[in-house]
Specification:
The complex is a heterodimer of chains A (558) and B (249). Helices cover 36% and strands 18% of the residues of chain A. Chain A contains 15 helices and 19 strands. In chain B, a hairpin with a 2-residue loop joins β1 and β2. The chains are: A alpha/beta (558), B alpha+beta (249).
Chain lengths: 558, 249
C-alpha cells in the first residue's frame, strides 16, 4: 500500500501547483499521473493567462468581464478571488522562470483577448501553457516531490463519508495498488474526448470527474461545454484566440467579415460562445466553405509579427493543414474545447466530501459560469491549485490516519471488476467510444433542442447498457492501452449522460448552452447551478443558488 | 492502403509485424498506429497524448529518422527509401523516393532501453535532464514584482524553452549511442537555457559549468548537428553546447 498525507491525481498545471503548495506547508505529498507530467494537456494552452497588471487596469474590471462573460452564472465570490490573486500568481510564475513575452520596457507583455475590456492576457508567444507547465514541473523537481508516473487511478475509496484514498493501476505492469491519503486532490482536467471534434489531447477523457461522480460527489453545471470558435479544420487542433487578439479576421466564403452581423462592437473579439455560434451559423446557412469551415486570416499581420507572436500556430497550420498562414488564411471550425462544469468545489478546492479536493478544469469552482473567457483557465489552475494545496495541507493536520481495511477491500473489488472485463467477445471500446463521440457532437453540440437532446439521452442510455458488456481482448500486462481505454470509457459514458440530461432539462440559453427552442436567457427560472448526483438508473439533478454580490445580471451584448 | 512495418518487442523477443492501413488525406503516422491498435492488434504499445506536436510523447524512429509520430504525415514518408542498413539520417533524407512503395518502417527511439514495442525507458532520459538541475532557485525570496527582461534576451531564451523533452534528439545522437552516461543534447540545451537566464544566480552558473565540464558533459558531443536536424521544435542543442564549451575555456 502506498501512503501519503496528500495525494494529487493529475500532473498538469493545477496538480503541480497544488502539490507544490502542500509541500511548502510541510505535508508529505505525492503526485500520481497517467502520463509523465509534462505530457499533460495544460501544455497545449496557447494564448495566455489573464492578470490585471496594467496601472490603468484593475481586478474589479477583470471580475466584471469574467462575470459578464459567464452570462452571470459564475459565483462572484470565487471570481473575486480569481481576479484579485491573479497578479500575484503570474508574478510568481515569472520569478520561477516562465519565459513570458516582454514589452520594450522589460515588463510582461499583454494582449487583448475575447470579452475583455483591457489587454490583460500575459503570454509566452503562443506557447503559454507549455512554458507554465515546464516551469512548474521544474519547481516540482527542485522540491523533490514524488511522482508516480503512468499510473491510472480507477476508483476513490470512501469511508464514513470521507475520502480516504484511492485505487490505481501501474500501467507499466497492470498491477493495482491501494493509495492511502488523508487528502486527495483531483486535478485531472477535462473530458473533451467524449466529443468527436475537440481541441483536447487524446488523454482527456474526464476520468477524474467520473471518479468523483461515482464516489457520490455532485457534478456542477456540466451542460456548459465550451466550443472554441477556431480549431483547425480536420484535426481540430487549437488555433489560439490570440490570433484574433493580434488582429486576425474571420471571413466566410463570400469574403465577408461576418462577425459584423453577430457582435458589431467586439467583432472577432467577442467571447467564445458568441463567435462559435456565429461560425456555426455561417456554416449551417451555407456561407462556409465546402466541407464546413470559415477562414481565419492573419496574412495582413506580416511574417515578422506572426513569427514573433504566433509561431506555434504557424507551425501547426503548416504541419497539420499544409497551409502557411503567412500566405494563406487558416481553415477553422468550432470544436469542443473546455468544460465549465466539473466536480463541485469551493474557493479552497474543497468538494462536499471531506478529504476530497478538486481543482482546474475537472472542478467547478464556478469562476467560469456558462462561458469561460480565454486566458482565465490557466489562471484558474494556479490560483486555485495553490489554494487547494494549502487547504489540504492544513486539513491533514487535523485528521487521523485511516485503517487499511476499506482500502484493501476496495482494491480487491477493483481487481475483480477488471478481471471480469478481460476476455473475448462482448463489446469493443473503440466502437462504443466512437458512437458516443458522434452522439455528443451531433446532438449535444453548439446548437441544441429538445428533440436532439432527448435522442442523445436515450442513445447514451443504450450505450451504457452495451458498456456493461465491454471486453478487453488484449491480455498483455505491459501498457495495456485497450484496458485503460475500456476503464476510462465507462466514465465517459456517465459524463455524456450527465451533460445531455442537464442540457435537456435547462430550458433556456445561457453562455455556451444554446437551445434553439429556448433562445433567451431566463433568469427568473434558470439563474441557478445544476447539480448532478450518480444514481444507478441515471443522474439525479438538483439546483443551487448563484452567488451574486457585486454585479447584477444585465443583458449581455458585445 | 499503406503498409506499416513495425518493430515489436516483448521481453527479449523482437520481431517485425506488417499492418495494412487505409490511408486518409492528412493522416499522420500516429493516426495510422491508432488504426492498428484499435482495429487490428490491441497489444501494440506506443505513447501518446496531445496529437498536436506539443507534448512530446510520441517520439519514435520513422524510416530510420527519429521524429514525432503525430507530426509526421503518412503521405510524406510512405515512399521514402528507408532500407539503408546503416541508420544514418542524412542517408535516408538523400536516398530519395520510391514511387508506389507505400511502406513505412516504424521502430522504437534508439539509445534508450525498449520496454515494449515502441515504448522506451524515458526515466533514463529524464534523469539525465534532471541532473543539470533545470530550475530557477528563488531562495525563499517572496516574489513581489517581475524581473525585468529585455525582449531580445527573452527571444534568446525562447529558442531553448521551446524544448518539449521528447528525446528525439537523444535518439539521433551518436555520443548518446556510445556513452549511456552522456548527458545528451536535451539536457545540455536545458543547461544552457538556465545559464542564459537572468534569473539564475552566478553561483548556479558556476556550479553548472563545473558539472558539465567532462566527457559525459559538453566534451562528449561530436558536433555533428544531428540533434539540430531532427528537433521538431527547432531547438538547437549543438550551438548551446559550443557556447558552454566557450565559457569553460
Amino acid at each position: 500500500m502506498i501512503d501519503h498525507d496528500v495525494l494529487v491525481i493529475g500532473g498538469g498545471l493545477s496538480g503541480l501547483r497544488a502539490a507544490l503548495e502542500a509541500k511548502f506547508r510541510g505535508a508529505d505529498v505525492a503526485i500520481i499521473s497517467k502520463v509523465y507530467p509534462i505530457r499533460s494537456h495544460s501544455g497545449a494552452a496557447q494564448g495566455g493567462i489573464n492578470a490585471s497588471l496594467g496601472f490603468d487596469d484593475s481586478w474589479e474590471a477583470h471580475a466584471l468581464d469574467t462575470v459578464k462573460g459567464s452570462d452571470y452564472l459564475a459565483d462572484q465570490d470565487t471570481v473575486e478571488i480569481l481576479c484579485r490573486e491573479a497578479p500575484e500568481r503570474v508574478i510568481e510564475m515569472e520569478n520561477w522562470g516562465t519565459n513570458f513575452s516582454r514589452k520594450d520596457d522589460g515588463t510582461i507583455a499583454q494582449r487583448p483577448f475575447g470579452g475583455a475590456g483591457f489587454p490583460r492576457t500575459c503570454y509566452a508567444g503562443d506557447r503559454t501553457g507549455h512554458n507554465l507547465l515546464h516551469t512548474l514541473h521544474e519547481q516540482v523537481l527542485k522540491n523533490k516531490i514524488k511522482v508516480y508516473n503512468e499510473w491510472l487511478v480507477t476508483r476513490l475509496v470512501v469511508e464514513k463519508g470521507k475520502c480516504i484514498g484511492s485505487v490505481a493501476m501501474n500501467t507499466a505492469n497492470s498491477e493495482m495498488d491501494a493509495l492511502r491519503a488523508k487528502a486527495t486532490i483531483l486535478a485531472t482536467g477535462g473530458y473533451g474526448r467524449i466529443y468527436q471534434r475537440s481541441t483536447n489531447a487524446i488523454i482527456n477523457r474526464g476520468s477524474g470527474i467520473a471518479l468523483a461522480y461515482m464516489a457520490g460527489v455532485s457534478l456542477k453545471d456540466m451542460e456548459f461545454v465550451q466550443f472554441h470558435p477556431t480549431t483547425l479544420w480536420g484535426t481540430n487542433i487549437l488555433i489560439t484566440e490570440g490570433a484574433r487578439g493580434e488582429g486576425g479576421y474571420l471571413y466566410n466564403k463570400d469574403h465577408e467579415r461576418f462577425m459584423a452581423s453577430y457582435a458589431a462592437g467586439a467583432m472577432e473579439l467577442a467571447p467564445r460562445d458568441i463567435v462559435a455560434r456565429a461560425i456555426q451559423t455561417e456554416i449551417d446557412e451555407r456561407r462556409g466553405f465546402p466541407g464546413g469551415y470559415v477562414q481565419l486570416d492573419i496574412t495582413h499581420l506580416g511574417k515578422e509579427k506572426i513569427n514573433k507572436r504566433l509561431p506555434g500556430i504557424r507551425q501547426i497550420s503548416i504541419d497539420f493543414a499544409g497551409i502557411d498562414p503567412v500566405q494563406k488564411p487558416i481553415p477553422v471550425q468550432p470544436g469542443q474545447h473546455y468544460s465549465m462544469g466539473g466536480v463541485s468545489s469551493n474557493k479552497d478546492g474543497e468538494t462536499p466530501m471531506p478529504g476530497l479536493y478538486a481543482v482546474g478544469e475537472c472542478a467547478c469552482i464556478s469562476v467560469h459560469g456558462a462561458n469561460r473567457l480565454g486566458g482565465n483557465s490557466l489562471l484558474d489552475t494556479v490560483v486555485f491549485g495553490k489554494r487547494a494545496g494549502g487547504a489540504a495541507a492544513e486539513y491533514v493536520k487535523t485528521v487521523e490516519n485511516q485503517t487499511e481495511e476499506s482500502l484493501i477491500d476496495a482494491l480487491k473489488s477493483e481487481q475483480q471488476s477488471i478481471e471480469e472485463m478481460m476476455g473475448e467477445g462482448g463489446e469493443n471500446f473503440a466502437e462504443l467510444r466512437d458512437e458516443l463521440r458522434a452522439i455528443m457532437q451531433e446532438y449535444v453540440g453548439v446548437f441544441r433542442n429538445r428533440e436532439k437532446l432527448e435522442h442523445a439521452v436515450e442513445a447514451i442510455r443504450e450505450l451504457k447498457e452495451r458498456g456493461k458488456e465491454l471486453r478487453v481482448k488484449n491480455n498483455s500486462s505491459v501498457f495495456n492501452f485497450e484496458l485503460m481505454n475500456a476503464i476510462e470509457l465507462k466514465g465517459m459514458l456517465e459524463l455524456g449522460h450527465v451533460i445531455a440530461l442537464g442540457a435537456l432539462v435547462r430550458e433556456e440559453s445561457r453562455g455556451a448552452h444554446y437551445r434553439t427552442d429556448y433562445p433567451e436567457r431566463d433568469d427568473e427560472n434558470w439563474l441557478k447551478h445544476t447539480l448532478a448526483f450518480f444514481k444507478p438508473e441515471g443522474p439525479e439533478l438538483d439546483y443551487r443558488e448563484v452567488t451574486i454580490d457585486r454585479f447584477q445580471p444585465e443583458r449581455r451584448a458585445y | 492502403m499503406v503498409t506499416l512495418k513495425i518493430k515489436r518487442q516483448d521481453g527479449d523477443r523482437t520481431w517485425f509485424d506488417q499492418f495494412e492501413v487505409e490511408e486518409k488525406t492528412g493522416m499522420t503516422v500516429l493516426e495510422a498506429l491508432f488504426h492498428v491498435q484499435e482495429r487490428q492488434d490491441g497489444s501494440l504499445c506506443f505513447r501518446y497524448s496531445c496529437r498536436g506536436a506539443v507534448c512530446g510523447s510520441c517520439a519514435m524512429l520513422i524510416n530510420k529518422v527519429p521524429g514525432l509520430a503525430c507530426r509526421t504525415q503518412v503521405a510524406n514518408v510512405k515512399d521514402e527509401a528507408a532500407d539503408e542498413p546503416e541508420d544514418d539520417i542524412a542517408a535516408v533524407k538523400q536516398s530519395g523516393k520510391v514511387e508506389g512503395k507505400n511502406e513505412i518502417l516504424i521502430e522504437p527511439l534508439p539509445n534508450l532501453k525498449v520496454i515494449r514495442d515502441l515504448i522506451v525507458d524515458m526515466d533514463h532520459f529524464y534523469s539525465l535532464v534532471d541532473s543539470v538541475k533545470p530550475w530557477i532557485d528563488m531562495q525563499d525570496r517572496e516574489p513581489e514584482k517581475v524581473t525585468l527582461m529585455d525582449p531580445s534576451t527573452q527571444n534568446q531564451l525562447e529558442r531553448y524553452t521551446n524544448c518539449i523533452l521528447c528525446a528525439t534528439c537523444h535518439g539521433a545522437c551518436p555520443a548518446a549511442a556510445r556513452d549511456g552516461n552522456y548527458l545528451g543534447p536535451a539536457a545540455l540545451a536545458k543547461a544552457w537555457r538556465f545559464y542564459l537566464d537572468p534569473r539564475s544566480r552566478d553561483k548556479d552558473r558556476d556550479e553548472l559549468l563545473e558539472l558539465l565540464d567532462s566527457e559525459s558533459g559538453v566534451w562528449g558531443c561530436d558536433v555533428v548537428y544531428k540533434c539540430v536536424a531532427v528537433c521538431p521544435k527547432k531547438v538547437t542543442p549543438t550551438p548551446a553546447i559550443l557556447e558552454l564549451r566557450k565559457k569553460m575555456e
